């Protein structure tokens, strides 16, 4: 083929390309994100901290168009496609059918994450005309590490110290602190918690001095002022370590929070200092026939109360016990039941400051019980698949039990107080429609437990079978990544009635398993850190939300009549 022929062929190819381009421009087909036989989902994976592109990250898309649960990550692997990013962090899926897809990524040294993820929510990618799915940015957070050394009073490492990690949590719409795990220091006193997500953490350490000696009085000496029955111990050895929080705080309220960002490797040292150990005496009730009550100690922590490890209680006389090696501070004293057929322990609070203190533990107030009869919305008795759980005001679980064949849940050993009630079946949370105590309705769906008595309640619950669907917009355009909250008409009637979601790329959202009742739907931009379940907070936004009523007996999906207008935080 000569040069003239080559030039002519080249010119023809150029004209054909121009003609095809003109057709594309005129007809608008295919769109930039559309390929032959489908659409494209493409973009770049970046480090959420440095902004650098991430090569060799594994990216997944999963069709969630027909998802039936709120967890968008838990999908059938057969319905999943994946690619690996290139050196520039780019990825692309071609010939993707029209639909809605979760987009997730993972890479060694990074937290697995979803597109615009907040807590367990993320924005799904919607393919279709007018939606840009080719210029997505998926940001992955580098894993963080929290480590350190536990040191004694001489600055030497402590082997075998117990280190506890806590994290500040906001999933219930209130700030609470949850225990994340425990670690034991190695032979050089170090600990490490790896693979941590960004957040606010707390850490504490506890141990027993290896050289400590605690000797109780013999049973021949019942007088606290009489030392004749004691074994002489060097006071410098009769010591104990206080549980210590960062930074050198002995009380949980004084613990210093540790902000942790993606990619951080923070060294957090913990120092344990000995204090003079207390020897405490407890008087209890009991008999050889029914057995003796042995007291135990609990101390407040960031997430409730923990049992205190001591040398154990020693009986120094009938119904008189001594517990040694106790550090000064606030405690809850627990005593087992005296009556043979009772299962309720007794409790009393104490603040121990001096050695030899005595307490009449027989005066401790017995815990209470709750007998909860569970009735389904239609009047039928709840099945044994249903369980009841009591939560404190801070969302901490206090007690829980399944219902029996009569549809009754018997909760025993409940510390006196007022609690929120959560009902569940095997698969999901049930909605508490009403709660009454001795015939008196509780509008807030709470139960108050009193000492030494059984509180009888009737709880009417409903299986939540309606999905509320809609769209959110801002300035007339779809708004993605926005928090949507379904607010019950009476927000203080129970957190189990709230529902949340995050808007997808087209502004759509889906609120799962809504119970019958009256609600308001709100969309809040950057609202993830709000105390959204607090009536005083969410009430402000509810004034500008959209009302919705879910009728009794309705099933399936319910579509909102108009688009939700996004509100600023």
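-> sequence recovered:
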């Amino acid at each position: 083929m000569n040069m003239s022929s080559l030039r002519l062929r080249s010119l023809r190819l150029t004209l054909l390309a121009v003609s095809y381009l003109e057709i594309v421009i005129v007809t608008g087909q295919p769109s930039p994100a559309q390929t032959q036989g489908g659409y494209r989902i493409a973009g770049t994976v970046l480090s959420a901290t440095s902004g650098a592109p991430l090569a060799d990250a594994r990216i997944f898309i999963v069709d969630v168009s027909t998802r039936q649960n709120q967890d968008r990550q838990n999908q059938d692997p057969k319905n999943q496609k994946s690619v690996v990013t290139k050196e520039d962090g780019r990825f692309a899926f071609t010939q993707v059918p029209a639909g809605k897809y979760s987009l997730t990524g993972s890479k060694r040294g990074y937290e697995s994450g979803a597109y615009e993820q907040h807590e367990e929510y993320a924005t799904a990618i919607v393919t279709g005309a007018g939606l840009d799915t080719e210029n997505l940015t998926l940001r992955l957070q580098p894993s963080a590490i929290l480590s350190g050394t536990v040191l004694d009073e001489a600055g030497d490492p402590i082997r075998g110290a117990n280190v506890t990690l806590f994290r500040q949590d906001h999933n219930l719409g209130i700030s609470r602190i949850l225990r994340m795990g425990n670690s034991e220091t190695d032979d050089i006193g170090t600990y490490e918690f790896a693979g941590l997500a960004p957040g606010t953490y707390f850490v504490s350490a506890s141990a027993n001095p290896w050289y400590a000696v605690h000797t109780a009085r013999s049973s021949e000496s019942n007088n606290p002022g009489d030392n004749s029955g004691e074994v002489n111990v060097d006071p410098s050895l009769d010591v104990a370590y206080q549980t210590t929080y960062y930074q050198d705080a002995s009380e949980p309220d004084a613990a210093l929070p540790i902000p942790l960002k993606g990619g951080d490797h923070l060294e957090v040292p913990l120092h344990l200092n000995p204090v003079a150990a207390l020897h405490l005496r407890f008087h209890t009730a009991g008999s050889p026939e029914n057995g003796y009550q042995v007291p135990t100690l609990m101390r407040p922590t960031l997430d409730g109360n923990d049992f205190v490890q001591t040398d154990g209680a020693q009986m120094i006389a009938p119904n008189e016990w001594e517990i040694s090696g106790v550090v000064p501070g606030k405690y809850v004293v627990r005593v087992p039941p005296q009556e043979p057929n009772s299962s309720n322990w007794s409790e009393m609070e104490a603040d121990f400051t001096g050695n030899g203190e005595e307490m009449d533990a027989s005066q401790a107030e017995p815990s209470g019980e709750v007998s909860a009869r569970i009735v389904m919305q239609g009047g039928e008795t709840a099945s044994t698949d249903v369980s009841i759980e009591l939560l404190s005001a801070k969302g901490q679980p206090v007690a829980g039990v399944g219902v029996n064949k009569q549809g009754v849940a018997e909760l025993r050993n409940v510390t006196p107080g007022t609690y929120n009630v959560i009902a569940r079946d095997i698969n999901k949370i049930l909605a508490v429609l009403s709660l009454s105590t001795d015939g008196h309705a509780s509008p807030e769906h709470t139960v108050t437990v009193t000492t030494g008595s059984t509180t009888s309640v009737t709880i009417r619950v409903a299986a939540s079978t309606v999905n509320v669907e809609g769209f959110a917009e801002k300035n007339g355009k779809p708004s993605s990544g926005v928090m949507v909250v379904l607010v019950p008409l009476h927000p203080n009637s129970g957190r189990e009635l709230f529902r949340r979601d995050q808007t997808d790329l087209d502004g759509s959202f889906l609120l799962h398993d809504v119970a019958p009742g009256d609600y308001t739907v709100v969309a809040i931009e950057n609202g993830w850190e709000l105390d959204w379940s607090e009536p005083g907070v969410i009430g402000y936004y509810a004034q500008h939300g959209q009302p919705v009523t879910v009728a009794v007996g309705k099933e399936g999906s319910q579509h909102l009549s108009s688009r939700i207008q996004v509100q600023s935080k």
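The radius of gyration is 31 Å.
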